[in-house]
């Protein structure tokens, strides 16, 4: 019987070789970046901004109002050269595994972000779930220098604020990469801005809406917050839609919330022109009514439903027209629907889809039902 000892000894040696960390980096040698920003300086120069967590010593946690972050910059002609310039100013190795947000200044977005995305996706340290934001009317540096009283790290604030946009999912790098592979579709990114509160006499940050990018990933324009929400309804990416309706007689307004929104898109091609029909459905909840109408009365309820659906049809159609005529970018996935429903027509149109989308005839139908009127008896403001 042959001895098994040589084989066992070889297995033990192999296991010993597999243990340990050959490229170990101590935490004391790392600097955690929680936010990045890129601005266009002109003449081919970029400004790379990093927001870093200040390392704390043992026993310092929770002790006072000491700032927990600092900002450093690097300049270069590419992201890689900017990063090298930035790293040369820091005694610790930059680590991006915890980066929450990437900010893009408006001028940088106008030039185009495709090269930026190339550098980000090639970096194995980048998080695919990092949110990407366009700073409307400003620079990434000015935005990242803003403090936020509710969070020690301002970069974390937007990660929480994005939930108020109404999307079921985030606004991450991964989503942008997926959108790039949807034929005919233009990507969008959430837009933020710095505003001055005249009452409080201070600057603050707020969500604006969506930045619309063309197929070359250059900024084409913006949707405001409501236009952005209506877009999400058409693409089926939201579950909550606020609506403020001005009555057609001009005698008041009412607010409603559309829940469980559904959508259906039908496409056809007739004489070379694309026809698109958008059907929108959902359940409405009346939140506030300025006219003192008793909505338990079926006639009043039908009046509000008619006004609500007319408002939705007009608002959504206007948003689609803005994308067609002003941006010439399909951000509603109509090309994707045409490809799915009529692949032969799509094959003939996809090479010139921007123009075909711009010339398409779009019809919007809304069928929202008011299911809840928010009261147990007559409204308190009824006369």
TrEMBL record:
Residue span, Spore germination GerAC-like C-terminal domain: 209-374
InterPro entries: GerAC_N, Spore_GerAC-like, Spore_GerAC-like_C, Spore_GerAC_C_sf
Superkingdom, natural source: Bacteria
A Pfam match: Spore_GerAC
Membrane topology recorded in Swiss-Prot or TrEMBL: Lipid-anchor
Primary localization: membrane
Residues covered by the Spore germination protein N-terminal domain: 23-193
Keyword annotations from UniProtKB, A to Z: Germination, Lipoprotein, Membrane, Palmitate, Signal
Compartments, as annotated in UniProt: Membrane
UniProt key word Lipoprotein: yes
Family the entry assigns: Belongs to the GerABKC lipoprotein family.
Protein name, as recorded: Ger(X)C family spore germination protein
Species: Paenibacillus lignilyticus
Upper classification of the organism: Bacteria, Bacillati, Bacillota, Bacilli, Bacillales
């Amino acid at each position: 019987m042959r001895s098994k000892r040589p084989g066992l000894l070889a297995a033990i040696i192999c296991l010993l070789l597999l243990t340990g960390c050959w490229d170990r980096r101590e935490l004391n040698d790392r600097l955690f970046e929680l936010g990045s920003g890129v601005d266009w300086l002109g003449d081919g120069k970029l400004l790379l901004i990093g927001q870093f967590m200040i390392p704390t010593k043992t026993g310092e946690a929770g002790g006072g109002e000491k700032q927990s972050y600092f900002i450093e910059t690097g300049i270069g002609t590419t992201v890689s050269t900017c990063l090298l310039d930035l790293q040369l100013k820091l005694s610790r190795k930059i680590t991006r595994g915890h980066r929450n947000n990437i900010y893009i200044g408006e001028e940088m977005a106008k030039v185009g972000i495709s090269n930026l995305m190339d550098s980000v996706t090639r970096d194995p340290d980048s998080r695919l779930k990092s949110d990407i934001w366009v700073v409307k009317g400003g620079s990434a540096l000015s935005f990242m220098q803003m403090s936020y009283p509710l969070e020690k790290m301002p970069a974390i604030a937007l990660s929480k604020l994005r939930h108020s946009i109404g999307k079921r999912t985030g606004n991450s790098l991964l989503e942008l990469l997926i959108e790039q592979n949807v034929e005919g579709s233009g990507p969008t990114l959430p837009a933020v801005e710095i505003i001055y509160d005249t009452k409080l006499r201070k600057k603050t940050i707020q969500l604006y809406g969506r930045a619309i990018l063309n197929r070359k990933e250059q900024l084409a324009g913006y949707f405001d917050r409501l236009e952005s929400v209506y877009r999400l309804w058409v693409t089926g990416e939201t579950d909550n839609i606020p609506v403020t309706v001005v009555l057609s007689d001009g005698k008041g307004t009412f607010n409603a919330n559309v829940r469980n929104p559904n959508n259906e898109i039908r496409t056809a091609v007739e004489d070379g022109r694309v026809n698109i029909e958008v059907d929108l459905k959902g359940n409405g909840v009346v939140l506030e009514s300025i006219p003192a109408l008793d909505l338990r009365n079926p006639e009043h309820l039908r009046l509000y439903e008619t006004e609500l659906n007319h408002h939705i049809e007009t608002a959504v159609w206007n948003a689609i027209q803005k994308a067609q005529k002003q941006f010439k970018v399909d951000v509603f996935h109509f090309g994707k629907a045409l490809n799915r429903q009529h692949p032969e027509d799509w094959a003939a149109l996809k090479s010139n889809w921007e123009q075909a989308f711009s010339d398409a005839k779009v019809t919007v139908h809304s069928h929202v039902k008011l299911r809840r009127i928010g009261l147990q008896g007559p409204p308190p403001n009824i006369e």
